[in-house]
Specification:
- This protein is an alpha/beta fold.
- Strands 1, 2, 3, 4, 5, 6, 7, 8, 9, 10 and 11 form an 11-stranded mixed β-sheet that branches.
- A hairpin with a 2-residue loop joins strand 3 and strand 4.
- Helix 1 packs parallel to helix 4 and helix 2 packs across helix 6.
- The longest helix is centred in the middle third of the chain and has 14 residues.
- Bound molecules: hypoxanthine.
- The site of hypoxanthine has 14 residues, from strand 5, strand 10 and strand 11.
- It is an enzyme of class 2 (transferase).
- Pathway: Purine metabolism; purine nucleoside salvage.
- It comes from Stenotrophomonas oahuensis.
- Belongs to the PNP/MTAP phosphorylase family. MTAP subfamily.
- Pfam families: PNP_UDP_1 (PF01048).
């Protein structure tokens, strides 16, 4: 098994890593089943980096159908110990407008009905992992440092609210999330973060704000075209940031 400096999971609008060279594709099976697609392993700015598109490379998997366990276990199987999760999100509070990049430090889970533990199968050991700090603090600090070195503007902190989807939220749901303390809303942050903790993987989230969440902006309809254009624009500096993070 080769050493992988960093694994990156791409979210909506991020189906490959720009500047990943000499790519080999790995079809991996895990005890939890099949991941969302092949893992692409390549060299990014001199570092060995693995990439997996969370929704599949053709965005064919809705958030509640993603096999989060298989995705993380597959990345671990090919040698990754650290995972940077890219999550496309809506912004709720003041500092989290469209095209902002943020590295949240907290989350609230509103999802339901997803397999959220490795202990799902009868007879498996029940795990009660500590999850007070859902994102690995050391990896978070390295993400922030990499952003600084590469000149990428990245908001430090924020609370990610994970919703069920695939529909977007109602204005009232977002108002409740704001009262709860959420700054960001996305559909894939959980159970991924909790499973990473159970697997013993270091895990941090880099949230890409694609739109104002329901009722937060001008009140105009949120379109997929807007979401994808904003993700594209906000992602320009990501290869350098990922390369720098992989180095450290
Ligand atoms: N809500 C939930 N998930 C999202 C959003 C949103 O507004 N935008 C991008 N992913």
């Amino acid at each position: 098994m080769e050493a992988i400096s960093l694994a990156v999971i791409g979210g909506t609008g991020v189906y490959k890593l720009a500047q990943l060279d000499d790519v080999t594709s790995h079809t991996v099976e895990t005890r939890y089943g099949t991941p969302s697609g092949p893992i692409r392993v390549g060299t990014l700015l001199g570092q060995r980096v693995a990439f997996l598109a969370r929704h599949g490379e053709g965005h064919s998997l809705p958030p509640h159908k993603i096999n989060y366990r298989a995705n993380l276990a597959a990345l671990q199987q090919i040698g990754a110990k650290r995972v940077l999760a890219l999550n496309t999100v809506g912004g709720i509070t003041e500092h989290f407008g469209p095209r902002v990049l943020a590295c949240p430090d907290q989350l609230i889970d509103y999802t339901w009905g997803r397999i959220s533990t490795l202990s799902e199968e009868p007879g498996s050991e029940v795990l009660h992992v500590d999850f007070g700090h859902p994102y690995t603090p050391l990896l978070r600090s390295k993400v922030l440092a990499a952003a600084k070195v590469t000149g990428v503007r990245l908001h430090d902190g924020g609370c990610y609210g994970a919703t069920q989807g695939p529909r977007l939220e109602t204005n009232a749901e977002i108002a409740r999330m704001r009262r709860d303390g959420c700054d960001l809303v996305g559909m894939t942050g959980m159970p991924e973060a909790g499973l990473a903790r159970e697997l013993g993987l270091d895990y941090a989230c880099l949230a890409i704000v694609a739109n104002w969440a329901a009722g937060c902006g001008t009140g105009e309809e949120i379109t997929m075209a807007e979401v994808l254009a904003n993700v594209d624009a906000a992602s320009a500096g990501l290869p350098e940031l990922v390369g720098e993070l992989a180095r450290g």
